[in-house]
């Protein structure tokens, strides 16, 4: 089972007078406005964050996301509900216990850097270990490694005021990483940066998380940032979590109209991947089959080529109609001599934006394979266009897609007839129906 690094259960945060009474009314079905003058910032928030994932909490200003993250490290006490960090309960803990949990379990990166202005980069990065009482040489060595990791080598002796905004945020990230806690909380960490620097920081965070396996809870109001970073996303509105899912879940199956409107302008080509749109591969033939079997599949499916698969559906190549007809006329069995490896394949994680060129060039639906080269599915061009337009590939109206060039049915039928005549076999009933 996947380890749970952080768990929130039934969290409420109400500011103002008689907060417990407001919680009871909210539990009974009252709306946020009905408990005023109390302010219900977070209402019945429940979720789990798996070890090693980036869990993004997304919402507009006033949705409660920043209040929520401050309850996850004890900066704000929950009015009701529970928070657990790696199995240790944070809510209800004493002040000393909360401090201990922060030092061992959770660190935070803030929107406005929160660096110590009179300390150098290296001393800022080492500060979390200094608070823990780690020896100076040990903490500075750990800080140097992290500074190098975030790309700030050579800047160790600079003060924060001498750095750009992006560099200061790298220092904040390095400080949190040096603390080596189980969970990293990031509250709008990149929102104060210029767009280009922001994108660089997003990419670096993904690289660092992949290398270090950190558990990250990331708060943002930017949908594209959430889609780029998140393994899973929690969408908040008016203090409540209205949907939790992967970026693909949020984009393709929004829970309500609010989420649908939120994601309507997302660049689907950069969020969706081959795995989200692939379909079962039907234009396939076994490597042990002959040209007759290959031609029958082509005819039945009205295509001009088939994929050849071996044991465990390992993709060995492609057979085209002209080659199969030539082989059949020659009376040769087996497909090995006409199986070509000049086909395009993509992995399940390939974004749709990278499928256009290979899809146009391929005579077959684009092959989707795993790291063992097994054929997992295919992406037809019509399905690719439908996914980009958020239209059903089975019922929606789509742009016209020209089919690949094919062999006329009369040519294939003549080839089959000639081969049957030579072998003395009868042409199967219906063999000349349909088109290729």
TrEMBL record:
One of its GO terms (molecular function) is ATP binding. Keywords: Amino-acid transport, ATP-binding, CBS domain, Nucleotide-binding, Transport. The keyword ATP-binding applies. The keyword Nucleotide-binding applies. Residues 6-263 form the ABC transporter domain. Residues 278-337 form the CBS domain. Gene3D superfamilies: CBS-domain, P-loop containing nucleotide triphosphate hydrolases. Belongs to the ABC transporter superfamily. This is Glycine/betaine ABC transporter ATP-binding protein. It comes from Homoserinibacter gongjuensis. The lineage of its organism: Bacteria, Bacillati, Actinomycetota, Actinomycetes, Micrococcales.
